[in-house]
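Aim 2, interim progress. The first record below pairs a target sequence with its structure tokens.
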Amino acid sequence: MVGRVCESEEDSQCGENVSLLPNLSLNKITTGAKPWACSACGRAFTRHSSLKTHIRCHTECKTYDYQKYGEKPYKCKECGKAFTYLSLLQRHERTHTVEKLNECKKCSKAFASSSSLQIHGRTHTGDKPYQCEICLKAFSSTTSLSKHDRTHTRGKPYECKKCSKAFTCSSSLQRHERIHTGEKPYECKKCSKAFTCSGSLRVHERTHTGEKPYECKKCSKAFTYSSSLRLHERTHTGEKPYECKKCSKAFTCSGSLRVHERSHTGEKPFECKICRKAFSYTSSLSKHERTHTGEKPYECKNCSKAFTCSSYLRKHERTHTGEKSYECKQCSKAFACSSYLRKHERTHTREKSYECKECNIVFTASKYLLVHLRSHTGEKAYECEESEKGFSSHANF
């Protein structure tokens, strides 16, 4: 026999213990008492059948909207993670107790259910079968679509009490609140680094595993992050969605645009603490600081040659792989780095970007300008050993 505490609709308890048997002489319907209380949320009912129907709210139809109030009453005993619904907790618990039979063939990541594997698989294929009827934006899962739908219908009902910033769902609010509390509940088992959300932890873990789940369909190059893949894909499509309002120059990513805008403003916010030289970009400062320290942290795995910055390493690695991912749209000639492509493109456009300050003659490449400058300075870089005669260019020599 299981006992329940009689509760009223206003959630105040009368304190009377009631048996879960049909003949309840102390709690007849006519008295208005509600002896059938839900152990999950405390809501009370007059009839046992009504309680049974209500219990489905927690296990099946989810009509009691805990999410609306930001409640997560179901907590995992193994790891402490909390959930809005019992069904979500039960699914999560399988990750601790049940053998993961659903393994991704691409990256070997395993899942407790086939549906979770199916959703994960879309991160590799880029498949987004769920489309918003209002703005036509596509999503890989119904959960993501539902979350997005609220931006059209419900606005942002979840507000931070600290800074009044509003969010479309309670999980986003909880994640944001950790900025104020400093809470970082997701810890890396390899290096103990902690993160505010599980997504950031998963991304970080790839630095240990070397996993690169995002593959380019054009050239099969793989990436650690989906954002890196999207950026790379633009090298094939030529898409440059970020345009400078000053000069209309377009860029493949917003970061490059922000960096470019400093060429108009002259802003150099990053200063070297040793020599006080200022830079427009943090990467330039970091690169410069290594001229003081001699540090070369980027090492080639093929030949152990080390470099001061990652871009030099990537450029060098192409000498081993033969990769030429920068292709000219005019003649399809491919190049190992973007600077070589830009230089080549000038042969089609006849663009002359190197100007002599003495006489204003412009040249397509810096080497031609250097040779020309010798006509002003009188410098003769090439000398004949037999006649000891000097020449300003290799061609004349």
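The second target in this work package is listed in the same format:
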Amino acid sequence: MEFNTKEYSDTSLSYLVLQHREQLKNHRKSFKKTLKLTELKLSLTNKLISLNKSQIQHMSSEELRVLNRQQIFFNYLENALEKLHEWRNASPEEKKRIWKKVRDHHLAKQQEKCAKIERDGEDNKSPEKDMQSNKRRKIDVDYN
């Protein structure tokens, strides 16, 4: 976390250090809160699944789908909790590597979406659709 001193040029250095420490403390509190909430969600989901599994023979297909979604959510939470623990125990170099990996992953997904939109846009450009859009434009012009 970087602190920009140029924004606070007329503020004393000791006050800036105090503010920076408070920001770091709040960040740590936020991380701990996220960790505790994830652990709580995991525990509650696990209890819910165990209660439902005892009645699995009497469940309808819809209830089985709900149980399956709960199990998927439980697995997601386990994975998230594992990543949070890894992050907490990681060195600064490892954290930079993790951030780069996450950023690259999100960038690749964004580029995939853009490419898909472009492909879909090219596929939808048929002469009939162009004519329909031109007709709509002419109608709009005629009414105005």
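Residues 13-53 form the longest helix (41 residues). This observation will shape the mutagenesis plan for the next reporting period.
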